[in-house]
């Protein structure tokens, strides 16, 4: 299973932060996960691939991107339509109660570069301000992710 460390490895993060000793490895690993999660939350782009099972309703709207349906069960059919910022799943005469989805980019190279850069920038900010940071995104990170934000209400 993929993790945030498939997007930014510990070695890449340490090189970016100019840290060459192991004392902060656990902290940096935690901050990688935090930075990626925050960018995902703000943009609703899933930056690495993972599977999730979700309960659904008819005309289910899926706001995480990218997404594909893995399992529906026997005899169930669906259509997926991509809209601006979300995917809508339409089911046939019967719909499943739960569906297994693959969410996220399968390859690091598929992730838009500004989102990766924003993760690095946020990682740097979190590392340098680990004891004093505020609960808001730095303005330069916000500017990088702004074009990728979705305005869905979940």
From TrEMBL:
InterPro entries listed in its UniProt record: Phage_gp6-like_head-tail
Taxonomic placement: Bacteria, Pseudomonadati, Bacteroidota, Cytophagia, Cytophagales
**Superkingdom of the organism of origin:** Bacteria
Show the CDD domains listed in the entry: gp6 (cd08054)
Q: What is this protein called?
A: Gp6-like head-tail connector protein
């Amino acid at each position: 299973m993929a993790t945030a460390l498939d997007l930014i490895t510990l070695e890449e993060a340490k090189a970016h932060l100019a840290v060459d000793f192991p004392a902060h490895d656990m902290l940096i690993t935690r901050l990688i996960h935090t930075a990626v999660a925050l960018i995902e939350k703000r943009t609703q782009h899933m930056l690495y691939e993972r599977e999730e099972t979700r309960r659904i309703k008819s005309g289910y709207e899926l706001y995480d991107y990218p997404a594909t349906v893995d399992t529906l069960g026997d005899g169930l059919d669906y259509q997926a339509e991509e809209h601006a910022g979300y995917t809508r799943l339409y089911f046939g005469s019967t719909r499943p109660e739960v569906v297994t989805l693959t969410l996220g980019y399968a390859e690091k190279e598929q992730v838009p570069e500004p989102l990766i850069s924003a993760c690095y920038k946020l990682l740097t900010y979190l590392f340098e301000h680990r004891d004093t940071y505020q609960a808001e995104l730095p303005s330069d990170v916000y500017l990088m992710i702004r074009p990728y934000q979705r305005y869905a209400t979940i």
